TrEMBL record:
This is Galactose-3-O-sulfotransferase 2. One of its GO terms (cellular component) is Golgi membrane. Its main location: Golgi. Residues 236-258, 266-275, 689-699, 710-720 have a biased composition (Polar residues). Belongs to the galactose-3-O-sulfotransferase family. Residues 95-124, 179-221, 236-284, 668-720 are annotated as: Disordered. The keyword Methyltransferase does not apply. One of its GO terms (molecular function) is galactosylceramide sulfotransferase activity. Keywords: Glycoprotein, Golgi apparatus, Membrane, Signal-anchor, Transferase, Transmembrane, Transmembrane helix. GO terms for biological process: glycolipid biosynthetic process. Gene3D superfamilies: P-loop containing nucleotide triphosphate hydrolases. It is found in: Golgi apparatus membrane. Residues 95-105, 179-191 have a biased composition (Basic and acidic residues).
Length: 720
């Protein structure tokens, strides 16, 4: 090729494309710089959060308000003033007693905890959620605060988780005199034990005393009391005058009575319960309610009983429905079903949800939760939030910025074995799992597949610990104990998904909700095709690989059953669970076309189709087509999957945002149309240029031809 030709060709190409190449290059450079800057900003933000967490949350922001031990008073010092090391030492000192005991459970080869083995375990030393719930209801106890106590007239064993209550109960009852008790005409004393025994027997029961209840005293005359004296306080209520009513004495030994632990129940439950013990026995445990001042000043048993009677009705209605709730939505633990319960509860009552900003589904997950990730928080458009329940990595100090002080905190755990089987199929495409075909293969050499620093790999190891905001790769056991302590202190209730129905009953009773509030259909569940049977060996490997989660689960499985025993007893729990299941079955028959869940491909209305992810096939539901309007709304809410329900609540709660978004969408559309038009113009111009260049080339070639002809002519030898 000739030099001039190359030159011309280059010129033609440059003319048409160089401009665009330069433009593209510049855009690329600007993009690179932008990404770099964004990365730095994001990294520093993350660092900041991590730092804050390490210094504030884990050791400094230790929740102390709800418990009042002397050591904890020391912890109330301003966190920033306590050096990190010192704080840690204090924590460890405070924990020593617990750590030693717990080690005996934790260091042993983990075995599933049965209800029976739980019974034997009386060493669990964490503060009790029931007490916390009660304490939460009553932020301050004054002398004029009233207490409601289910009472066994002559002998009562007080189950006080709150130290202050413990003292009150013990002091008061020790002063009760036999003669005075006898003198009261309304009290029928059936027990034949001497009053001295009553006095001897009236003692405070320790929170962690879960051992089998004695049926005879050291004197062998009076049984230990069958009823736990649960105390509920009525803040600022007036001392009540004495009223008369028939009080019957429980004198039957524990072994001979079916009287169970009592708790103050929701009105609905009370209505449902036929009060069996009352019907069957003439001697009944009663609910007493008197002001603390009265109680302390009172020196007679009759007075106590009269006051108890006076408040009997009040006690049954004193259960205040809780509407300020924080639910830590852990992954693969049946949390979507609970989310649906909370959504329905709030939706029906027009409560305000702390929803993720920008219509997302998660609250800044997998990063630590920040208050700014909640819609309406930064702009202060929302005055008070009621419920926070989307996926987040828990960070208490940030959550507290958003949620009211009296919020009820709860979460749910699942056995890490079944949980990992579930997450393996759901998160099949995270780096840790993507290169193996089975869970067994992964567990053969997990470290060769697991790199903690790669994004999303937290789904593969100790996911529960991660969600609760702790280090899921921690090897130091003390860290685990500290984490358990913090969870026990920050959360009022920890549920267990394997006992979902029991969990719902416990939740219902603690929050004073109704049965219909907690009835639900199983959501986000896989079909059998994508479930895998695990061998015993694999199960053991999972426990080992997720050892932090496993120990966490073991601990809270124990406290879960303890809570049931302390609050309502297992028999009553069974009754209520049966009612819940009956109600669910009834609703399934009414609402669902097939009477149960169907494969995603079978879901007819795509707006109710659950989000499909990874290698899992998530089942959905078809509504019965012949439903009346109200029933239809109710049924629709029951089957609406997480993403759709979150979006609809967002639209309901932030109509302005929806409007703004639609305007923005329109603007975007116009922009994209303009952009498309300008692109078309550019393409046209380029084509024209191209044509021009071709024409030019053509012209050049013509000139060339002409020129070569001319030169040829000039070079022709003169023949003539
Ligand atoms: N009511 C009830 N009882 C017991 N188990 C239940 C219940 N509801 C949901 N599930 C099971 O929970 C698994 C889904 O958990 P999540 O909803 O938390 O998952 S997610 O993190 O929100 O994606 C999922 O487990 P797998 O099916 O093993 O994957 C569901 O089947």
């Amino acid at each position: 090729m000739k030099r001039s030709q190359v030159k011309r060709w280059l010129k033609a190409v440059c003319c048409t494309h160089l401009r665009f190449m330069w433009m593209a290059l510049m855009v690329f450079v600007v993009l690179c710089v932008g990404i770099q800057m964004f990365g730095v900003a994001r990294h520093s933000r993350k660092e900041q959060i991590l730092k804050q967490f390490a210094t504030e949350k884990l050791f400094d922001k230790f929740e102390v308000e709800r418990t009042t031990t002397s050591t904890q008073h020391q912890l109330e010092e301003e966190p920033s003033k306590i050096p990190f090391q010192e704080y840690r030492t204090r924590m460890e000192r405070e924990q020593t007693f617990q750590t030693d005991r717990d080690r005996s459970h934790i260091s042993q080869k983990p075995t599933p905890v049965s209800k029976d083995s739980y019974e034997k375990d009386s060493n669990v030393s964490f503060s009790d959620g029931t007490a916390q719930a009660i304490a939460q209801k009553i932020p301050k106890i004054s002398m004029d605060t009233e207490i409601s106590v289910p009472i066994l007239s002559s002998m009562s064993q007080i189950n006080c988780q709150d130290p202050s209550k413990k003292i009150i109960g013990a002091t008061d009852l020790k002063n009760v005199k036999h003669q005075e008790a006898k003198s009261h005409s309304e009290v029928r004393i059936d027990s034949d034990g001497p009053v001295s025994a009553l006095k001897a027997q009236t003692k405070t029961r320790q929170t962690d005393d879960l051992g089998p209840k004695e049926s005879a005293t050291s004197q062998g005359q009076i049984s230990r009391l069958p009823v736990l004296l649960d105390i509920t306080l009525h803040k600022n209520a007036n001392p009540s005058p004495v009223t008369q009513s028939s009080i019957k004495q429980e004198g039957t030994p524990m072994a001979n009575t079916d009287t169970k632990n009592h708790q103050i129940e929701s009105p609905e439950t009370l209505k449902q319960q036929p009060k069996t013990s009352k019907d069957q026995h003439s001697s009944v445990p009663l609910v007493s309610s008197v002001s603390i001042r009265d109680l302390l000043e009172s020196s007679t048993l009759p007075e106590l009983h009269a006051a108890a009677l006076k408040k009997l009705d009040e006690a049954s209605t004193s259960c205040q429905q809780k509407t300020h709730i924080v639910f830590l939505k852990t992954h693969k633990t049946a949390s979507s079903t609970i989310l649906n319960i909370l959504y329905r509860f709030g939706d029906a009552r027009n409560l305000t949800f702390a929803l993720p900003r920008g219509k997302h589904n998660q609250l800044f997950y997998p990063f630590y939760f920040t208050a700014f990730s909640v819609e309406g928080f930064r702009s202060k458009t929302i005055k008070e939030y009621d419920i926070m329940c989307n996926h987040m990595r828990f960070h208490i100090s940030e959550v507290r910025k958003v949620m009211p002080e009296d919020s009820f905190y709860f979460s749910i755990l699942r056995n890490p074995v079944t949980m990992m089987e579930s997450s393996f199929s759901y998160y099949k495409y995270i780096p840790a799992f993507s290169k193996v075909s089975t869970l067994d293969q992964f567990l053969q050499d997990p470290w060769s597949h697991y790199n903690a620093s790669l994004p999303n790999n937290h789904y593969a190891k100790n996911l529960l610990m991660f969600d609760f905001g702790f280090n899921n790769n921690e090897k130091d056991e003390r860290h685990l104990n500290l984490s358990i302590t913090l969870i026990a202190k920050n959360f009022n209730l920890i549920l267990i998904s394997a006992y979902f129905d029991e969990s719902m009953i416990l939740l219902k009773n603690t929050l004073c909700w109704s049965l219909d509030d907690v009835v639900s259909f199983k959501l986000n569940s896989r079909n059998n095709k994508t479930k895998h049977q695990l061998s015993l060996e694999t199960m053991e490997k999972i426990k080992e690989w997720n050892s932090l989660d496993w120990k966490l689960y073991l601990h809270f499985n124990r406290t879960f059953w303890r809570k049931i025993d302390e609050s309502m007893g297992r028999e009553k729990m069974q009754d209520e669970v049966k009612k819940l299941r009956d109600r669910r079955n009834q609703l399934m028959k009414i609402c669902l076309q097939e009477g149960g869940a169907v494969d995603p491909s079978q879901v007819k209305d795509t707006s109710f189709k659950p989000f499909q992810y990874g290698a899992a096939e998530i089942q959905g539901y078809n509504l019965n087509p012949h439903l009346g309007d109200r029933t239809k709304t109710w049924c629709q809410r029951l089957i609406t999957p997480e993403l759709q329900y979150t979006a609809s609540l967002y639209d309901k709660q932030f109509p302005d945002m929806v409007l703004k978004a639609s305007v923005q969408n329109k603007t975007k559309q116009t922009h994209s149309q303009t952009w498309k038009a300008s692109k078309a113009k550019m393409r046209q111009r380029r084509n024209l240029n191209h044509q021009g260049a071709e024409n030019q080339n053509l012209r050049h070639s013509v000139y060339r031809k002409r020129g070569s002809k001319r030169t040829a002519q000039t070079n022709l030898p003169n023949m003539t």
